[in-house]
Every structure is written in structure tokens, then in C-alpha cells.
Amino acid sequence: MCKRILLSVLIASSAFFPAFPQTDARESYEKFRQQVLGQYDDFRNEANRRYADFLRQAWEAYQQEPAIPKPKDEKQPPVVMPDKDRDKPVEDKPVTIEEVVSPPEPQPQPQPIAPVREQPNVEERTVAFSYCHTECKVRFPAKCTLSLAKCDKHALADAWGKLSATDYDNTIKDCLELRERYRLCDWAYLQLLHLMAETCLGKTNEATLLTAFIFSQSGYDMKLGLAGGNVCLLFASRHMIYDMGYFTVNGKQYYPLEPSKGGMLICDAVFPEGKPLDLTITRTMSLSFDATTPRIIKSKRFPEVNASVSTNRNLMNFYNSFPSSMTDNDFMTRWAIYANSPMDEETKKQLYGCIAPSVAGLSAKEATERLLNFVQTGFEYEYDDKVWGQDRAFFAEETLFYPYCDCEDRSILFSRLVRDLLGLKVVLVYYPGHLATAVKFEENVAGDYMVIGNDRFTVCDPTYIGAPVGRTMPGMDNQTARVIMLH
């Protein structure tokens, strides 16, 4: 880290010294700057050299551990509140909290152990490919000599040495720039690297090795494996991924990029400072926008709260590939990833442009009441098992796109609307078989509530159809609840 800071200071300093009055001073500074840059190059070169050496020897046999299945929960059908009960006085009633779950804070994306510098005078070709129908281009050596005709540890070490040459630096640099340009999350970046490598080298062992190499040079923790004459890329994950077998190496879980069965030889070598892939999505990705057919969504009780909204078909395709996961062996943390992900900017512009005026100028409770009814009555409820054949949580945009949703999807969308439009804190509230929300109001709002620290949160249930703020779905009100904190 200190190395990175020093280099950034040096580079920044060169921009602030356009000219020196003394030639000697300028030459002395430039010599010092090049010396430090050279040390960075030496550091990365040495790391790759040592890793290649380890590839020749540090291999052990490992057995794949069975996948963790997605949890199967009880089914709680939606409840419609009778109109005659809607305006009855709401009384305060505390909800007992069994547990408060705080998912890990998101971390900055990994960075290379040393800056990847532009390499001039490299004979290259431009490789174009489309990731989620978004145009991408990278430079790739015109005379690529990467070959794994004999796929063993010595061939891998030799190939890693070739990849470590500066000829591939511009390819790495272009991939990192694509990650930043399209604001890709870690999962998207790994998928992009794999697609890029297969575009350059076909569906080959060489493509898998290239993916692993650029992934490691980008700052991620990975392992190489050998099974059945094939190279395997295994990535470390900050999250435990459902329905995906994994290998435990030195106490850490590594997941194969492509499905595998049984055992494999895995290189125990550790590339310096690699960080595990993080499945949290902290910023909206800038994928090319392919608008879906507009959908009209309207509140039944407050018809002025309505919207015509399209989503990004390319983003929907990406979400289809996104793995469900948890952290700290707590299945409740899986919902936080979906609820904390920001909504696509174009979809948000359409949706909020329609409904924001209808809640403007209202008290926080009145505005929340309208957003709550919008989610309660604007969507059709259906069980995931019936629609998908398994449990599947939705990102907010998916609830706007798909014709059906369930309690967790409604709660995720509602939490997003309240945080974005009203700036209020929201938590997810879990009862066995059911997910709802609770909102922190600044004013005193009557109803079922829970106290978290010094904050009072009032229950708002997007699946208790027609119910106002403060009312818990029947059958849930006498149970203790578990709370999932959101950003």
C-alpha cells in the first residue's frame, strides 16, 4: 500500500512541475522518478517469477466439497387487509428482536500490486467482443506464443513466464480500464475476463490461464488447478456461494470458474496481496441500455402514484448469471446484497421521475404510506418455486421487470424506494417464512415497532396488501423477528 501511495505521489508531482529553472534539478528528479517506477516493475516481475517457480512444485490433491444448497423456507401467503380495518387506530406494540444481522461493509475493488504501465512499441491487434451486449475492445499481442500442448505444471510455469512479459501489459491495462469505464462489479469483471480470453484464444486451456493471469494481476486471489488434462481457475470469494461446489485450500474457500466434479491438483502458491472476489454491488454498472417494453405500475389506493418504466434487458441478463450467496454462515445476509445494490440510473430516472412528484411535500409517514401501497398493490404475488422452480431473490429492477414477485422482492424494492426518495433508514425484518421492512421516522409514528440501538423503526409490510404503516401481517405479530441492517 505504501508503494502505491508513493508512486501516486510521484506521478502527481510530475504533473505539477511543468518546467524547472535548473536543468540539473529536472534531470535529477526524473532520474529518481524512473528509479522508483523501476522498483515497481521489479516488484511485480519478481512476484510473477516466484509464482512461476511455485507452479513447478507446490501442488497438492484436493477433493471438491459439496455445494451449499439454497435454504428452503416456509411459505407465507400474502394477506389482504379488509377495507373496513384500514382506518382503525394503530396502537404501539413493540416487536421482540431475536438478532440483528449486520452484513460486512463493502470493500474497495482490488488493485494490481504495482501499477500496470502503458507499453509502447508492442506489435498488437485489437480484439473486439461484446459483454452483455456492451462493446468492448482490448489490445492483444499480435504474435501470441502462449501454448499448453502439454498441460502439466511445468508447461503452466513456462506459460506464466510468457504472460509475465510486458507484451501483455496493455491487455491488462485495457481490461482494468473496461472495469472502470463500465463500473463493473467483481463478478462482472471476472465474467468479462473469461469472455475476452476465449475471444482471443478460443475455448482452450490457454484462455483459462490467460483469465487467471489477468485476474491475479488485477489484484484478486485465485488458484490454478489441473483436472482431466484441463486447467481450472479457482477464485476466492468473500461470500459463500450457494449451489456451487468448492475447494478448501489453507482454510479458504475457492470456487471453480467452470463447473467441476471430484478432485483436482491445485497449486498452493499465493500471488501477493490478492483479495477475494466480493459479490456486493456498490455502484450502478454502465452496461449498454436495451429498453424492455414499458410497464405501467400503479397504486390502488393512491392512483396518482404510478409509473411507466422500462428496465435494461442487458442488466436483466447479467442478473440471471449472478450467484446467490451468504456471509458468515448466515443465510439472512443474502438479502442484503440485493437490497443494498443501487438501482440502474436510467430505470431510476424513469421510475423516480414519475413517482417523486406524487410524494413531494408530504410528511415522511404520508409519503411512506403511498410508496408502501404502490408496492403492495402494483405487483402480482407468486411463489418462487412455482415461477422459477427454486428460491430466487430479485434486485429492485427485476421486480419492475418480471410479472410476479414475492415478499422478499417487494421488501427489497420498497427499501430501495424509501431510502432513495425519502432518505430514511430502512431495515429488513425476517419472520419464519416471511420478509418485511421497518422504517426509521424522525417524527412519532404509531404502530408495531422495534428499537435498534437508539433508533425506533416502525414496521411497514409490502406483502400485507392494503395495510398502512405500522401494521404487521397477521400470524407474524406475536413472533420474534430477526433484523437485517441495510446501508
Strand-helix topology:
Blueprint lengths: L1 H14 L7 H33 L3 E5 L15 E2 L2 H4 L6 E2 L2 E5 L22 E8 L2 E8 L11 H11 L5 H13 L4 H16 L3 H13 L4 E6 L2 E7 L3 E2 L5 E3 L2 E5 L6 E5 L27 E4 L7 E4 L3 H8 L4 E2 L6 H8 L4 H15 L4 H14 L2 E2 L2 H4 L8 H6 L2 E2 L1 H16 L3 E6 L2 E7 L7 E5 L2 E6 L3 E2 L15 E5 L2
Parallel strand pairs: 2-22, 3-20, 4-23, 16-17
Antiparallel strand pairs: 1-12, 5-6, 7-8, 7-12, 8-11, 9-15, 10-11, 13-14, 18-19, 18-23, 19-21, 20-21
Helix pairs in contact: 1-2, 2-4, 6-7, 9-14, 11-14
Question: How would you describe this protein?
Answer:
Helices cover 36% and strands 21% of the residues. The chain has 14 helices and 23 strands. The strands form 7 sheets. Strands 3-20-21-19-18-23-4 form a 7-stranded mixed sheet, covered by helices on one side. The chain has a 6-stranded antiparallel sheet with strand order 1-12-7-8-11-10. The protein has a two-stranded parallel ribbon with strand order 2-22. Helix 6 packs across helix 7 and helix 11 packs antiparallel against helix 14. The N terminus is likely disordered.
